[in-house]
Design goal:
alpha+beta, four-stranded antiparallel sheet, 4 strands
C-alpha cells in the first residue's frame, strides 16, 4: 500500500465519526523506485491531507526532508516535488495493518493490499 492510497482511506465502522487518518502498523515496508512525474505529483498535492502524509511517512521512518507544512509555489519546486513523489509513490507497506483512530479496529494489509471490508455487525 502506497502512502498515496493511505491518504485516501478512512474507517467506516458503524458509529465512528473520526475514522481518519488511519494509524499504520507496518511489519514490512519497501522502497521501490518509480518514474518521477512532476505533473502527476503537482495535481495530487491539493487532494492530499498534508499532515496525514507527513505523519504516515514519519511513522514509517521515511519522512526525510518532507516539510511539516506545504510550501508555497510547490509546482515550480522540482526538489520538493521529488520529495513528495518519494513519500507518496515509492514507500510501500507490504505487510501490516491500518488501525481506526476511534474504534481501534484493525484492517489487515497483505501483499501491499489493504482489506477495508467490514463484518456485518460493523456496517
Amino acid at each position: 500500500m502506497k502512502l498515496l492510497t493511505h491518504n485516501m482511506l478512512t474507517s467506516h465502522v458503524k458509529g465512528v465519526t473520526k475514522g481518519y487518518p488511519l494509524l499504520i502498523k507496518a511489519a514490512e515496508v519497501r522502497v521501490k523506485e518509480v518514474e518521477f512525474n512532476p505533473q502527476f505529483v503537482s495535481r495530487m498535492i491539493p487532494k492530499l491531507e498534508w499532515s496525514a502524509l507527513v505523519q504516515a511517512a514519519e511513522g514509517l521512518g521515511h519522512r526525510q526532508d518532507l516539510p511539516a507544512d506545504l510550501i508555497p509555489d510547490y509546482e515550480k519546486n522540482e526538489e520538493f516535488l521529488k520529495q513528495v513523489h518519494r513519500a507518496l509513490l515509492e514507500v510501500e507497506v507490504i505487510e501490516g495493518s491500518l488501525q481506526c483512530p476511534e474504534s481501534g479496529r484493525e484492517f489487515p494489509i497483505s501483499k501491499g493490499i489493504p482489506n477495508m471490508l467490514l463484518n456485518d455487525d460493523e456496517a
